[in-house]
Design goal:
Layout lengths: L1 H18 L3 H12 L5 H8 L5 H41 L17 H15 L3 E2 L5 E2 L1 H4 L11 H4 L10 E2 L5 H10 L3 E10 L11 E11 L4 H16 L5 E5 L5 E10 L16 E10 L1 H6 L8 E8 H8 L6 H5 L2 H4 L3
Helix pairs in contact: 1-2, 1-4, 2-4, 5-11
The protein binds 3,4-dihydroxyphenylalanine (DAH).
Length: 341
């Protein structure tokens, strides 16, 4: 009788194991059949107590055989589930080892730096030297040596950040002209790109910190025609096309005559926008022939030498070239803006 129930139990359980659809179902069968307490096989072995000793040994053997078979079947089935699981995971998570690695993210140059370098290359090719000067300047270099004495109204045109001890943050790159004349003497061809600072309220077209590129050429019999030639060469190089310009008289104590070279606003095409203050034109390039007094102050004989100078607004130029409508973007450090260039 016990023989039969063991055989039935074995066959039935093997069938259930074979049919199991999930590890959970398999585990349920295991507990039901092989569980130590209340499992079907455990139940049978309890009944063995009533048997005669030789019968008990035979049934015991039978029971162990069945238990072993069921354990093997369970392990095999579990192996199948594990393998299927692994295969599914590998299919879902595979990595293509032949793909190139992403590599480190590379930065790039700021739009102003790019324009600055292009202009440096251009002017170097025209025989100019690139000079650097301090951002913290003395009153002498920023004003006096440029023919702007203390009581001169032109000092009020530039709202200056004064520092302790009478020094200041340079309000333009023009002091580097003076340093260039002192250091190199005539004949001289120099440019000086760099930052300048003014105590201004900030809006779409004004910043307290901005970039200029100063230029100066001193030689024998330099004329306005020379000046215009270099300015046109410069603008064509930057905009890769003829920019519409106009020349107005402009006043700067360090040049005589002085001019304002304006460029038609490339953002609005001359119709008027915040950058050109609705005028259609942008002041880009103040320039002129060097005032003899400036030469004299730096020890150059104005009877023998003369020259031209210009102070290009690099920040404005970058805004025109890249159609940037708000100057504050340039120093804002927002990568969403910078990554467009
Ligand atoms: N330094 C002047 C400024 O920032 C610009 C300037 C005007 C520079 C005329 C020059 C020049 O060299 O000749 O307002």
């Amino acid at each position: 009788m016990l023989d039969e129930s063991i055989q039935e139990l074995e066959a039935g359980s093997l069938a259930r194991i074979a049919r199991a659809q999930s590890p959970e179902e398999l585990e349920a069968v295991r507990v039901e059949v092989l569980g130590r307490k209340g499992g079907a096989l455990a139940q049978v072995s309890k009944d063995m107590g009533k048997l005669a000793p030789e019968e008990r040994a035979r049934i015991g053997k039978l029971l162990n055989g069945a238990k072993q078979k069921l354990e093997d079947a369970l392990a095999a089935k579990k192996g199948q589930f594990d393998e299927a699981d692994l295969r599914a995971r590998l299919d879902g998570e595979w990595i293509d080892l032949t793909l190139p690695a992403p590599g480190p993210r590379r930065g790039h140059l700021h739009p102003i730096t790019r324009i600055q370098r292009e202009l440096e290359d251009l002017f170097v090719s025209l025989g100019f030297t690139v000079l650097d000067g301090p951002e913290v300047e003395t009153e002498y270099y920023n004003f006096d040596a440029l023919n702007i004495p203390a009581d001169h109204p032109a000092r009020d045109m530039q709202d200056t950040f004064w520092l302790d001890g009478g020094n200041l943050l340079r309000t333009h790159t023009s002091p580097v002209q003076v340093r260039g004349m002192e250091r190199l003497g005539p004949p001289l061809r120099m440019i000086a790109p760099g930052r300048a600072f003014r105590n201004e309220s900030v809006d779409a077209s004004h910043e307290h910190t901005f970039y200029q590129l100063e230029g100066m050429m001193i030689d024998r019999e330099v004329s306005v025609a020379h000046l215009l030639y270099f300015m046109k060469t410069l603008l064509t190089a930057i905009f890769h096309r003829e920019a519409t310009v106009r020349l107005r008289p402009g006043y700067f104590p360090f040049v005589e005559p002085g001019f304002e070279l304006d460029i038609q606003c490339l953002i609005c095409g001359g119709a008027g926008c915040p950058v050109c203050k609705q005028s259609g034109w942008v002041e880009l390039l103040p320039c002129g022939l060097v005032n003899p007094q400036v030469l004299r102050l730096s020890g150059i004989d104005p009877g023998a030498w003369n020259g031209f100078a210009f102070g290009l607004g690099l920040t404005r130029l970058a805004m025109m070239r890249y159609a940037i409508d708000d100057i504050r973007h340039l120093q804002g450090g927002d990568l969403r803006f910078l990554e467009q260039f």
